[in-house]
Amino acid sequence: MSLRDLQVWKWTFFALFLLIYACVLSRIYMVAIPAVIQGGSEAKLCASLLQPDEVLVMTISLIADGQKETLLTKSSEQEFYSCFPFQVPNVKNKKVYIFQVEVRGKTFLSIEKRKVMIIPYTMINFIQTDKPIYIPGQTVHFRVITLAELTFSSCETQDPHQNRIGQWMNITSRGSILQLSYSLNSEAREGSYLISAWVGENARSHMFTVEKYVLPKFEIKITHDEINIRQEEHEVRICAMYTYGMPVPGKAELDLCRPFGYNMHILFMEDLKPPCVKQSYVFEVCCFACLQLDQTGCGSHNFNLSFFTKKTELELSDVFTLNVKVEEEGTGVIRSEEKQASITYEIGKIRFVDTPKIYEHGSIIEGKVKVVDFKNNPIAHMMVHLFKGHIWYPTYLQNLTTDTDGIASFSINTTLMPKENIKLNVYDKPQFSYREYRIPYFSNGNHEISGIQPTSIHRKTSSSLSVQKIEEPMPCGEEVSITVQYAIVGETVPKGSVDVIYLALSRGVLVQQGHVKVPVPQENSATEGDVTLKLTVVPEMAPMVQILVYSILPSETVIAHSTKFPIEKCFRNKVSVEFSPSKAVPGEKNTLQLSAQPGSLCGLSAVDQSVHIMKPGMKLNADQIFNLLSTNETPLPYGLEDPVGCLHVRPRRSMLAYPNVHDNNEPYTTFQKFGIKMATNLAIREPFCLHYKGSKFVRYTGGLMSYGHPAGVSMGMLNFPGEPGMAYGEPYLPAIQTVRTFFPETWIWDLVEVGESGSADVSLTVPDTITTWETEAFCLGPGGFGLAPPVKLTVFQPFFLEVILPYSIIRGENFELKATVFNYLSKCIMVSVTPAESSDYTLTPLNDVQYSSCLCANERKTFRWTLSPSVLGVLNVSVRAEAVQSDVSCDNEIVTVPERGRIDTVTRRLLVKAEGTEKTDTHNWLLCPTGEALTKEVELQLPKNVVDGSDRASLSVLGDVLGRALKNLDGLLQMPYGCGEQNMALLAPNIYILEYLNNTAQLTPAIRDKATKFLTSGYQRQLNYKHSDGAYSTFGQGSGNTWLTAFVLRSFGKAKSFIYIDPKNIAQSKSWLESQQGMHGCFNRKGKLFNNRMKGGVTDEVTLTAYITASMLELNTPVTDPVVTSSLSCLRNSTSDLSNTYTTALLAYTFTLAGDMEMRTLLLQHLDKIALKEEGLLHWTQTSSETSASLAVEISSYVLLASLNVAPLSSADLGYASLIVRWLVKQQNSHGGFSSTQDTVVALQALALYSTKVFSNKGAITVTIQAPGGHTYLFELNQNNKLLYQERELEDTKGKYSVKVKGNACASVQVALSYNIPTPTDNTTLSIQVTPVVDCNSNSLRTRVMLLFTAQYYGNLSATNMVIVDVKMLSGFVPDPESLRKLRDSFTVDRVDIKDDHVLMYLSELTPQLYTIFILDILQELPVQNLKPAVVKIYDYYQPSDQAEAEYVFPCK
Question: Where do the Alpha-2-macroglobulin domain residues begin and end (predicted)?
Answer without folding.
Answer: 746-835
